[in-house]
Structure to design on (233 residues):
C-alpha cells in the first residue's frame, strides 16, 4: 500500500502544485510517458491555422515534422474531435525515427476547451500495441489538464482531487510490479535516462537499475545530443 500512496502523492504534486501552466503541461507529459512506455511527448498549442510547440519531453526534429504533417493532412478530422493514431502496421512512414530505438506507435489527440480546439497532445510509444481503446480513454482523462495549461487557467482543486481519486482506483487495481515499472520509467524519463542520477535518487546502485530494466523488459533509451530540450517560459 505504501507504493500506492507514494505514486498518488507524486501524481497529486504533478497536477496540483504546478502554478506555471507550461510546467503543468510538462509534468503531465511525464506522467503519460511513464504510463504508456513513452519515448517522447509534446503539447502543441493551436494558433489559428497553425500549431506551435508549447511543452515537450524528449522530442526531436522528426517529431516536429510528423506533427506538422498530421496537422496538415488531418486538420478537419482533428477539429471534429477525431484522434489520429499510428500502430506499427499503419502508415509507418509517418513514425519518427524508424531506425532501432524509434517509436512503434504514436497518437495525436485533439484537446478542446469550451468546444474549441486549443491544442494537440502528442505521445509516441515503444509499445507496438499502444493506441488501443483503453490507451485512448486513459489519454483523454488528461486532456482537461492540458487544456487548462494551454489556456492559462489554474486547475480547480476539487477537479484535481477528483482526478487523484480516479488515479487511486487505477493504482489499487494495478499489480505492484507494474507500479514499480511505471515509477522507474517516470524517473528515467524525467532525468533523461541518466542511470547514475536515477540510482542516486532511488538510493540503489547502477547495477540494480540495470537489473530492474532487464526484469521489467524495459529497453534502454540512449538520448541523442541533438534532441530538443523542453520548452520553458
Amino acid at each position: 500500500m505504501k507504493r500506492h500512496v507514494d505514486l498518488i502523492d507524486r501524481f497529486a504534486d504533478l497536477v496540483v502544485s504546478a502554478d506555471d501552466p507550461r510546467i503543468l503541461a510538462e509534468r503531465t507529459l511525464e506522467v503519460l510517458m511513464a504510463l504508456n512506455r513513452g519515448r517522447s511527448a509534446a503539447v502543441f498549442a493551436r494558433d489559428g491555422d497553425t500549431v506551435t510547440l508549447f511543452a515537450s519531453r524528449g522530442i526531436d526534429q522528426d517529431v516536429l515534422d510528423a506533427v506538422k504533417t498530421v496537422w496538415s493532412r488531418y486538420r478537419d478530422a482533428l477539429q471534429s474531435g477525431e484522434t489520429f493514431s499510428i500502430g506499427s502496421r499503419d502508415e509507418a512512414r509517418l513514425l519518427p525515427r524508424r531506425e532501432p530505438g524509434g517509436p512503434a506507435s504514436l497518437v495525436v489527440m485533439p484537446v478542446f476547451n469550451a468546444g474549441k480546439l486549443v491544442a494537440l497532445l502528442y505521445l509516441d510509444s515503444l509499445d507496438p500495441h499502444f493506441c488501443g481503446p483503453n490507451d485512448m480513454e486513459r489519454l483523454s482523462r488528461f486532456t482537461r489538464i492540458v487544456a487548462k495549461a494551454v489556456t492559462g487557467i489554474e486547475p480547480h482543486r476539487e477537479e484535481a482531487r477528483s482526478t487523484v481519486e480516479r488515479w487511486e482506483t487505477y493504482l489499487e487495481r494495478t499489480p505492484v510490479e507494474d507500479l514499480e515499472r511505471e515509477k522507474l520509467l517516470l524517473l528515467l524519463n524525467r532525468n533523461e535516462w541518466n542511470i547514475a542520477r536515477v540510482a542516486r535518487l532511488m538510493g540503489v546502485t547502477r547495477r540494480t537499475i540495470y537489473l530492474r530494466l532487464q526484469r521489467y523488459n524495459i529497453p534502454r533509451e540512449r538520448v541523442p545530443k541533438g534532441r530538443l530540450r523542453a520548452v520553458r517560459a
Q: What stands out?
A: The chain has one domain: 2-172. DSSP finds nine helices and five strands in the chain.
